Amino acid sequence: SDEWDVKICCIGAGYVGGPTMAVIAKKCPKVRVCVVDISQKQIDAWNSDKLPIYEPGLPEIVSDCVNKNLFFSTDVDGEIDKADIIFISVNTPTKTKGIGAGRAANIKNCELCARQIAKVANSSKIVVEKSTVPVRTAQAITRVLKSNDKGLDFQVLSNPEFLAEGTAISDLMAPDRVLIGGHQSPEGLAAAEKLVSVYANWVPRERILTTNLWSSELSKLVANAFLAQRVSSINSISALCEATGADVSEISRAVGMDDRIGKRFLQSSVGFGGSCFQKDILNLVYLCETFGLEECAAYWNQVVIMNDYQKKRFSQKMVAQMFNTVTGKKIALLGYAFKKDTGDVRETPSMFVLRDLLEEGARMHVYDPQVSREDMWIEMNYTCGVNHDNTPGLDESVITETDVYAACDGAHALAVLTEWDEFKTLDYERIFKSMAKPAFVFDGRNILDYAKLRDIGFEVHAIGKPD
Ligand code: NAD
Ligand code: UGA
């Protein structure tokens, strides 16, 4: 109805669409926001008490706004038609087949959204790329939108999202910056200004950057590549630390205190995971290759190679330390999410450790406070091709536990793979007593108190630390 300043429709009710739109609704009471999705299950979950994603602070905001100025619906066509601004926030996974398989991002879902908009719109729209896309995707989106023959005007903007899972709400409430790219024409600039005015409800103007379309699209890939590169850089040093007796945490501190380097994102780990870092770097690599920039492609590809090496190195070290065999041994994996404060398991490093140890014949007991067994198997099948059909006995060799002490009971080793706060304060005396001896701890996140654990009697191995 006309009581609204602006009507927004967001296509894609996932990790980005849901929280981003909830915060816009919360901060802009006069904006009507509707998030649509083709998945009925996903929309039903958003409209229920149990949201489809775990994100601290999100349930409060959703329950404040839902059915006031925030709506979740499967009426994609109806909501597209109503809206002034349409966000495309669908998944853009790495292609698994065809040209660029394993590297190029598939923008199929984005194109489908554009086609849908072109088909059902009866008024002019601003169409915003929120998904992470290859540079110049806006050109394709614009051409698809032009297939609408009703003489409407479509302005395409790029507005990449920089939130991190687990801190999505605080990231959205106080973003370092909001980036809006548009055509440098009067109509393009006017469209960008309209989106600026939505964010300006809570984001200081000087933090809202406007650029041309291609800079905006490419900045998103570059930001993720730089962040991931820091993790791979410190992880490469962790291997050198283990070989030399240096301590990677001391190195991170010493290096990071240089303001020019900065201290964030230098936490050495079992490797980075999540749905985006690898996907976006591979996207960048593929773009470089497409333009014949082989050296640039190889440079960025090395960030992914180093991450694969780090994950592999971890499971190999576990086996080597446990007398070169884990066959038949019970091993507890503490944490399965790709980082703390999320239930997301896409590309989680835990999965690769689990896969490797299963191949060695270990009996795996997995504990994570937020991950469902169903999601674990979906991702294991999607990313590693391991499923119940091609791997008989999975249900016997992988037990998911709801009690962390049960997971460790009788185990030869425990491995911390997600940095959940609760792992810092477990009763390690009790765990030690219940474990087989020697009792091994492998800390893939460097969060435990090693002096204390060694005192109790554990044999401790961490990333980039003296054994
Ligand atoms: P997601 O898989 O959680 O959600 C995507 C949703 O889009 C799904 O619910 C799916 O059903 C829906 N969808 C797909 N095609 C559709 C269509 N044609 N019509 C209607 N709905 C459709 O994905 P996500 O994690 O929210 O990521 C979305 C995009 O944002 C990606 O490009 C990603 O790279 C980017 N991104 C993600 C994060 C993050 O933290 N997850 C952060 C920044 C950017
Ligand atoms: C990341 C970026 O931080 C976001 O800005 C971006 O919007 C998002 O990707 C995206 O495009 O999807 P996210 O993947 O949710 O966010 O989480 P991060 O905090 O970046 O962590 C990514 C991975 O790196 C995790 O597995 C984490 O454990 C690991 N990591 C991070 C380290 O191993 N060490 C560090 O110092 C930091």
Structural features, described:
With 467 residues, this protein is of the alpha/beta class. The chain is built from 18 helices and 14 strands. The chain has an eight-stranded mixed β-sheet with strand order 3-2-1-4-5-6-7-8, with helices on both faces. Strands 11-10-9-12-13-14 form a six-stranded parallel β-sheet, sandwiched between helices. The longest helix is centred in the middle third of the chain and has 32 residues. The radius of gyration is 24 Å and the shape is globular. The chain starts with 5 loop residues before the first strand and ends in a 5-residue tail after the last strand. Bound molecules: nicotinamide-adenine-dinucleotide and uridine-5'-diphosphate-glucuronic acid (UGA). The site of uridine-5'-diphosphate-glucuronic acid has 20 residues, from α9. Nicotinamide-adenine-dinucleotide binds next to α5.
C-alpha-based Rg, rounded:
24 Å
Tell me the helix content.
40-55%
The residue ranges in which pLDDT falls below 50 over 5 or more consecutive positions are none
Sheet with most strands: strand arrangement: 3-2-1-4-5-6-7-8
Task: Compute the separation of the termini in Å.
Answer: 66 Å
Given the C-alpha coordinates, what overall shape results?
globular
SS field, number of helical segments = 18
